[in-house]
């Protein structure tokens, strides 16, 4: 099975985690697109979705799935999203698709985070994938210097403006041994809107697409 087939496999498998009558939190990316397309076939059994990006909203609506605003819901039973990396305790790097801030906002509304990913995303230590960080443009150089001081090299994602009108720095060279601590530290830097470490909002479950089928990892 190639990577696209693995993404389609876990996208379909995630349907089992969508309760009857639910409003479901929906992430962003190519794996989530597979989930959205699979969800379309069962749209009668859900109330709708809360979306984490303009792109996912458009895809959901193109299938006739109702999209609710965050202020219209108090809690979501489940949030389904992909990841750029996931470690052995469910901590993730996210933001490859530049949607990290809204992804964290929607994840925060959900009782559980179901991560869907192909096996290439599973790592022992986060940090091989450059860490996305959404920044207010006037702080970009300043934040880049802070990363240099802890061994990271930050590059501006040229030509990308997020759904929130901000910029993305991609930071390479970090070995993120303590994701919770690093997330908390970077969150405090002025001008950082969101760091793509999802440790406080780590996955409860990961559906990992492998050539042998879907492997279910539970993180409690
Ligand atoms: O965080 C994300 C978008 O901001 C995505 O979940 C992440 O980049 C994985 O994407 P894909 O499913 O296309 O590999």
Automatic annotation (TrEMBL):
Q: Which GO terms describe its biological process?
A: D-ribose metabolic process; pentose-phosphate shunt, non-oxidative branch
Positions bound to substrate: 28-31, 81-84, 94-97, 121
Query: Which GO terms label this protein's molecular function in UniProt?
Result: ribose-5-phosphate isomerase activity
Quaternary data: Homodimer.
Establish whether keyword Cell membrane is in the entry: no
Task: Indicate the residues that form the catalytic site.
Answer: 103 (proton acceptor)
What keywords would UniProt list here? Answer: Isomerase
Q: What is this protein called?
A: Ribose-5-phosphate isomerase A
**Which EC number(s) does UniProt give?**
5.3.1.6
Question: Which residue spans traverse the membrane?
Answer: none
Q: Is Isomerase one of the keywords UniProt gives this record?
A: yes
